[in-house]
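Hi everyone,

Forwarding the result from last night's run.
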Amino acid sequence: MKKYLLEITVFLCGAIVMVYEIVGSRVVAPHFGTSIYVWTSLIGVIMASLSLGYWLGGRWADKKPSFKRLGLIIVGAAICIILANTFKEGLLQTLSRNFSSMMLRPLLASIILFAPASLFLGMVSPYAIRLKLTKIETSGKIVGNLYAISTLGSIIGTFLAGFLLIPLFGSTNILYMISGILIINALVLSIRFLSKWDVFFFSVVILFEAWSAYAYNTRSIAFIDTDTQYNHVQIFDTEYWISGEPIKVMKVNDEYSSAMFPGNDSLVYEYLQFYQLSEHFMPSFEKALIIGGAGYSYPRFYLQKYDHATIDVVEIDPALTDLAKEHFRLEEDSRMRIFHEDGRTYLNNCKEKYDIIFGDAYKSLMAIPFQLATLEAIQKKYDLLNEDGIVIENLISSLEGPASEFMKAEVQTFLEVFPRVYLFACHDPGDPELLQSICLLACKSEEVLPFVSDDPLIQGFLSHRVDLHIPAGIRVFTDDYAPIEYITMKAM
């Protein structure tokens, strides 16, 4: 065991780097989502910190290499992880309040929370190599072996974090776990060389982590806070912003995905009410598909109101379905089938035909997953519709101005496939600059229906129709070109 102590160290630190990076996305997600900017910031900052750590670790190792100093480097990484874990919520809330840029917020968060520990972890491999080297004739073999072992650790850490740790333990407890492993590793390396002051220092670090972990796991909370294989999820009670009534909300990453009233299945979110336009544009519908389940607010409403119809729900995250059953009154129903897979793969492989396809999948606060918004995806939706079928989707946009760029491009993309596309401003059709939910409705039939209904509810929705001028030269979204997050960042 002692003979392979350095190999074990570089293996563990290699694994912890990747666990730290993947868990980092879950730490940031409740505040900034899981956009490409979050991942770019995390990967870029951690890689830069590791590079600096390699350089610094090599220089320190050449001065006076010792197992004690390597242990202190490792415990330095542990302290940085503990501090980041303890103060992350306050920091992320501060950044969210004071910075509006979707690029700057995750970049600053990554630098403050993840760069220090990554720098220390980067120092480990060159320092361990220097301790392992005994003669120049075998230096190549030693360097190759240690870097191979470190990389193997990174591979195992990647799979371990994604497939096992996050679903089982949640991001905060994982960070406490890996910092604890680092402290143990540091003690094993350096315990023979520690002075009384060193022992006191290690004791303080261990007590601080124990206190912080205990405080987190025994805190009194009035909401669900959990990690799934795909998302960070919070469920909590709050008040309806219109009437002040109590509601229960499911927040997935940074998006308020679903909400319900405790006593009934009425729809909380206004855009979902506009989905009832299906009654006007496809009055004889019998079979619907909805992409995006989350708390299953609309599927439950649909089953209750349309007792003659069936609905298929595609929800990528099976844990959201379980949470909806536990907290959002979702029940098994013979008229509802649930498919746990990515919406695009379902569209690609589906052999069914539908009268209506509802779109309610979001990757973050304003961004639809790009693979569901492209020309190829829209063509798949068109092909799955019956002769007079319709697509209804929610877009968060303004009617004019910088925040309308995504919607105009998406409408143009739909017009490449569907003969008729209509827009309904869910809040205020008279305010072109207002950022709001806009209901997009695309009809497969070329028949033009009158925008008049005997149903006062439907007529109210129809009265929110808006005309949209799309400038020439707008580029449609394709699987090859869909900078949706970049465009929505400008809107923010």
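Residues 309 and 337 are 12 Å apart (CA to CA).

Cheers,
N.
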